[in-house]
Structure formats: structure tokens, C-alpha cells
Write a structure and sequence with these properties.
CATH class of the largest domain: Mainly Alpha
Shape: globular
Number of strands: 0
Number of domains: 2
CATH architecture of the largest domain: Up-down Bundle
Number of helices: 10
Order of helices and strands: HHHHHHHHHH
Distance between the termini: 19 Å
Structural class: mainly alpha
Strand content: under 5%
Length: 193
């Protein structure tokens, strides 16, 4: 159970209620992180606008790659909610279940090409506190992405780090969007115990 519960009768400002209504229409339920962020309405609004800018159609990064990056960052940050919802996004963008299942082992998987591996390695280096982005990794990234794409990639990874760390710290539970990764998360938790 989440460490902070927003009471059912919590009064959100109209602009947050509009966003929550849209989530209910889109997902069939209001997402718990939105209820938590909504307790700080102006921060919530800024985050929603930032995410919309990063996840827009005109991004130089494909929707499938953006979704894979968000899942990988979420896995590294132990955010079960983010893995759940973003895993479902990956599958909606046409990525196969076997490719998604191989994400933690993307370097060894035949499902990932050199460009995807470079982006995922970069995301992992940004996310893990025991790694750093070095010149060799950045050169690999530059083989596949121009400067604008790298800026967006960095922004997407930084945003997902903030989002997944927020949700993980508050122990936000998954909401049942991606059954495939829910089982993987349970297996990983059992191995860590």
C-alpha cells in the first residue's frame, strides 16, 4: 500500500480535476501518482506539461524507444507502478512481448539493435549512481542520434528518473496494466530476498 493515501474526498483545483477526469476516461481509473502529485497542483501542472512536451508526436525519438527507456529506468529505480503502466505502453507501440521481456538483458538479446542498445546503455548510465556517462558511451550514442535527439533522450531519462523515484519512494502499487512485467517484477523481488 502506498505510504501516502489521498483521501477519496480530497478537493483538487478544477484544472487537476479535469486532468483526473481525462485519466479516468482513458485508463478506466485515476492513476495513483496523479492523485499524489495533484496534492501540489502547480507542480503537477508543470510536470504534466513537461511530460507532454517530451512525449509528443514530433519527438526525434520513436514512441516505442521512449516507452522502452521509461520501462528500463523504472526497473532500475524499483518503481512497480511505472514498469506496469509503461510496459503496457511498450506493447501498445507494437513491441513484441519477447523483446519487452528481454529488456533487462538488452545487450545479449537479438531483439535489440545497436541504436537501441546505445540509448538504453546511456539511460542506465544516467540512472545508476555507480555509473557515469563516459566519452566512449557518448560516442556510441552519437553514431545513431543527432544532438537534438540526444537532448530529448537525456530529458526523457531525467524525467522518468524523477517520476519513478517519486513513485518508488511513496510505494505506489501497480494498477494492473501489464501482466507480463508484473510476473517479472515478482520473480525479481523473490530473487533479491
Amino acid at each position: 500500500m502506498a505510504r501516502i493515501i489521498t483521501p477519496p474526498g480530497h478537493h483538487f483545483p478544477w484544472f487537476v480535476r479535469l486532468f483526473l477526469w481525462n485519466q479516468r476516461r482513458r485508463y478506466g481509473a485515476v492513476l495513483e501518482p496523479a492523485r499524489l502529485w495533484g496534492r501540489s497542483p502547480w507542480v503537477f501542472t508543470a510536470l504534466a506539461l513537461l511530460f507532454g512536451a517530451l512525449d509528443r508526436r514530433g519527438s526525434p525519438l520513436s514512441p516505442a524507444l521512449r516507452a522502452l527507456l521509461t520501462v528500463r529506468v523504472s526497473q532500475l529505480n524499483w518503481c512497480a507502478f511505472c514498469v506496469d503502466i509503461n510496459g503496457a505502453r511498450v506493447l501498445r507501440h507494437g513491441v513484441s512481448e519477447s523483446k519487452l521481456a528481454d529488456l533487462p538483458r538488452h545487450q545479449e538479446s537479438p531483439h535489440y539493435d545497436a541504436a537501441e542498445n546505445a540509448a538504453l546503455d546511456y539511460a542506465e548510465a544516467i540512472t545508476r549512481s555507480d555509473h557515469q556517462v563516459d566519452d566512449k558511451l557518448f560516442a556510441r550514442l552519437r553514431e545513431h542520434y543527432d544532438d537534438d535527439a540526444i537532448v530529448e533522450l537525456t530529458g526523457m531519462v531525467a524525467f522518468q528518473n524523477m517520476s519513478s523515484k517519486f513513485n518508488a519512494a511513496l510505494d505506489v502499487a501497480p494498477q494492473g496494466f501489464c501482466r507480463l512485467l508484473a510476473q517479472d517484477a515478482n520473480d525479481e523481488t523473490e530473487r533479491a530476498a
